[in-house]
């Protein structure tokens, strides 16, 4: 049964999200049960399965349609994901979704297996609805946010976003094929669609061939220069903007599927399915949305002929076909259903026996556990799509077969066949070939089945959905370009620094010296980083400072700084130099403001369970990381309004799920400058990972070196991937400094 859940809403919240997914469908559809009870149910299709895990991890917002026409819903949280529904009227549903998306683009992009229809009013609706989705993202996105737009229904959104919000980082991923130019060029709006897509920074496809088709279409229609996966798009100001177009084959939560498959009750269910089917020798399985691209007719035809010719019998082999309902108001889909159901009836009538049907045909969707039990029961999985962007069913089957058994028969016209080379590959149009392949699959010896399945499983496990999204997001945000370790240019910069007379090494703590953890009090610098810091400060010509947003008290506790390390806390409000503690002296008026601020903020925090206030010498921070994003954002927003109203001129700084108020202003840049002047340093290395470190990068001189840890926009000249590489960088610097010293003393 669907996992229905009562909708919850957090009304009227406008939040600024750092990561937004935009897709036609939300991960949940609105449903009303027979007695009229409203609820939300997981929606169909591979996209949702692929993105749900990513979104939960990112604390992002998902913008999409709730699956029903003429209904408006407020934003709400579902299973840890913030949902922002976009409404569609019944007319728009007809023209934009059923019409242009699924009766123009879908058949066109799937190599015109069915004839596409071109209607100008459908196009108009497509433009209008794309605008609505774009507007929702424009409103919800934080400054510089990453917006990831999905699939053929929303190809105009990237350009609309770029025009309104050039600050955004925009990605697009096409889940379905992109056709060869000879086919694509039939589209009357072929230029507008490509212009829409080129609004993105990265346009992703399933297969290299899809990316190639797209790049060729760009060249043919616009004549833009392309080099490998880079397209140079001329901007109005004469600048060239580089758009990346390449393949990122999507995948599944392989470990999640395997975990379900290993459950005893799921295995028991698989055995039960087998018994219920009359204990045949071979169970063949097809699992598809009921779509003409899936080649369901071809596989049934081949199976029927094998029965007719006596190469298989219903006692030996049975076919289970799950065909989940899809797009039932589109005429081509209606016809398909009739044809399939006619075929099923004929085959069962001609070949079935009591207790031994030829085909068990199931026109429903099933919960994941039941699907996994079916995969485990199936000796041969039939994926015979005539054209398919990827086909995640093939990957799900492989992920579930931890017993290294079962045969995957896979159409070479699926994206998955680029990766799953050890499957039995077929051309589904070649019915004789398909029949032979089905027999080969049925008769395949156990050793060969195991060998092939092991190889398939390695592939699916190593490129799982987390890997897919990380690879895409890395390409999008630039982190993918950060080389592991210390890059050549960074090590050259380190060698230059090593020769300086009085060196200052200033280091942010959380996310730089210490990996980020769930509970701030658990943060600890890595042993390697600490050892390198100790080597650096062993000599008087090198000083180290820890520069943090934490209060000095909290910094001392978690960082346990070695003797001689200088400390800057509370974003530079507190400074500890060599003469010991420099706790700040608040003036009377600051004291009074801090007292009032404390009252106001404690008051605000008490409004939501899970919010808490952190006390600092000259300010307070309100933490909302344990609340749903919209609730946290609303709480921060109302607290900020009240506080700014009562305490004008107060310093406000917002971070990840935290907002800080200070009665004395300072930032890491001011603090770095003070430390540097105090020490008379001749050069500085500054390393940091957060937005607040940008103030420090901004005050660096030309001969200084700034290193940003991880992805995100930055003024720093260099990057490393993470805290391990920070430790390596500090070790490299310590080596170089010692070598330089030896050199001068010789
Ligand atoms: C394919 C498309 C998705 C779509 C899904 C279900 O996987 O790539 O974008 O959501 O089919 O189709 P539907 O029309 O029901 O959303």
Automatic annotation (TrEMBL):
GO CC annotation, single: cytosol
Catalytic activity: D-glucose 6-phosphate + UDP-alpha-D-glucose = alpha,alpha-trehalose 6-phosphate + UDP + H(+)
Keyword Secreted assigned: no
EC number: 2.4.1.15
Enzyme kind, highest EC tier: transferase
Record's keyword terms, sorted: Glycosyltransferase, Transferase
Pathway terms, separated by semicolons: Glycan biosynthesis; trehalose biosynthesis
InterPro entries in the record: Glyco_trans_20, HAD-like_sf, HAD-SF_hydro_IIB, HAD_sf, Trehalose_OtsA, Trehalose_PPase
TM spans (from-to): none
Single GO molecular function: trehalose-phosphatase activity
GO BP annotations, alphabetical order: trehalose biosynthetic process
Entry keyword Zinc-finger: no
UniProt similarity note: In the C-terminal section; belongs to the trehalose phosphatase family.
PANTHER family the UniProt entry points to: BCDNA.GH08860, TREHALOSE-6-PHOSPHATE SYNTHASE
Full protein name: Alpha,alpha-trehalose-phosphate synthase
Organism of origin: Agromyces mediolanus
């Amino acid at each position: 049964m669907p996992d229905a859940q009562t909708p919850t809403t957090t009304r009227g919240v406008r939040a600024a999200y750092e990561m937004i997914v935009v897709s036609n469908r939300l991960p949940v559809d609105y449903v009303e049960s027979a007695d009229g009870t409203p609820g939300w149910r997981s929606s169909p299709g591979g996209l949702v399965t692929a993105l749900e895990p990513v979104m939960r991890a990112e604390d992002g917002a998902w913008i999409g349609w709730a699956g029903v026409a003429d209904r408006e819903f407020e934003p709400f949280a579902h299973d840890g994901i913030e949902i922002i529904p976009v409404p569609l009227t019944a007319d728009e549903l007809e023209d934009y979704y059923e019409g242009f998306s699924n009766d123009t683009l879908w058949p066109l992009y799937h190599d015109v297996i069915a004839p596409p229809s071109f209607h100008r009013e459908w196009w108009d609706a497509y433009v209008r609805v794309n605008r609505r989705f774009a507007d929702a993202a424009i409103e919800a996105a934080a400054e510089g946010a990453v917006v990831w737009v999905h699939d053929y229904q929303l190809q105009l959104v990237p350009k609309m976003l770029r025009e309104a919000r050039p600050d955004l980082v925009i990605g697009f991923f096409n889940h379905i094929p992109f056709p060869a130019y000879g086919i694509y060029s039939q589209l009357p709006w072929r230029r507008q669609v490509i212009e829409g897509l080129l609004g993105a920074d990265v346009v992703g496809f399933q297969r290299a061939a899809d990316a190639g088709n797209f790049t060729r279409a760009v060249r043919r229609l616009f004549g833009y220069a392309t080099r490998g996966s880079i397209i140079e798009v001329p901007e109005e100001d004469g600048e060239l903007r580089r758009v990346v177009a390449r393949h990122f084959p999507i995948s599944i939560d392989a470990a999640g599927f395997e975990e379900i498959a290993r459950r005893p009750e799921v295995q028991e269910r698989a055995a039960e399915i087998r018994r219920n089917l009359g204990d045949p020798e071979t169970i063949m399985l097809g699992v598809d949305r009921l779509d003409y691209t899936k080649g369901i007719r071809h596989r049934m035809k081949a199976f029927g002929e094998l029965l007719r010719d006596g190469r298989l019998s219903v006692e030996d082999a049975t076919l289970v076909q799950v065909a989940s309902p899809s797009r039932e108001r589109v005429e081509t889909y209606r016809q398909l259903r009739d044809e399939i159901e006619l075929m099923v009836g004929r085959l069962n009538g001609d070949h079935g026996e009591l207790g031994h049907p030829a085909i068990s045909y199931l026109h429903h969707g099933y919960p994941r556990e039941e699907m996994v039990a079916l995969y485990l029961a199936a000796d041969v999985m039939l994926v015979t799509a005539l054209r398919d962007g990827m086909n995640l069913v093939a990957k799900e089957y492989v992920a579930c077969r931890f017993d290294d058994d079962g045969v995957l028969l896979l159409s070479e016209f699926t994206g998955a066949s680029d990766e799953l080379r050890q499957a039995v590959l077929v051309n589904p149009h070649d019915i004789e070939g398909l029949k032979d392949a089905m027999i080969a699959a049925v008769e395949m010896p156990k050793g060969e089945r195991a060998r092939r399945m092991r190889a398939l499983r390695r592939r699916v496990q190593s490129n799982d959905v987390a890997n897919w999204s990380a690879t895409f997001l890395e390409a999008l945000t630039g982190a993918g370009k950060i080389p592991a370790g210390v890059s050549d240019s960074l090590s050259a910069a380190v060698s230059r620094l090593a020769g300086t007379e009085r060196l200052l090494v200033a280091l942010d703590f959380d996310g730089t010296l210490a990996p980020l953890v769930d509970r701030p009090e658990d943060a600890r610098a890595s042993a390697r980083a600490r050892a390198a810091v100790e080597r650096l400060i062993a000599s008087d010509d090198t000083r180290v400072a820890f520069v943090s947003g934490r209060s000095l008290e909290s910094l001392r506790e978690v960082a346990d700084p070695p003797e001689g390390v200088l400390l800057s806390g509370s974003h530079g409000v507190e400074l500890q130099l060599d003469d010991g503690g420099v706790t700040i002296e608040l003036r009377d008026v600051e004291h009074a403001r801090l007292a009032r601020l404390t009252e106001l903020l404690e008051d605000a925090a008490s409004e939501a369970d899970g919010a808490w206030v952190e006390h600092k010498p000259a300010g307070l921070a309100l933490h909302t990381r344990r609340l749903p994003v919209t609730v946290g954002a609303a709480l921060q927003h109302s607290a900020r309004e009240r506080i700014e109203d009562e305490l004008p001129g107060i310093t406000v700084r917002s971070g990840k799920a935290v907002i800080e108020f200070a009665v004395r202003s300072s930032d890491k840049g001011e603090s770095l400058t003070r430390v540097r002047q105090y020490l008379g340093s001749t050069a500085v290395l500054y390393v940091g990972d957060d937005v607040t470190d940008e103030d420090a990068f901004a005050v660096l001189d030309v001969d200084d070196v700034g290193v940003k840890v991880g992805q995100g926009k930055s003024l720093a000249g260099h990057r490393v991937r993470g805290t391990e590489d920070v430790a390596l960088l500090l070790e490299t610097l310590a080596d170089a400094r010692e070598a330089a010293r030896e050199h001068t003393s010789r």
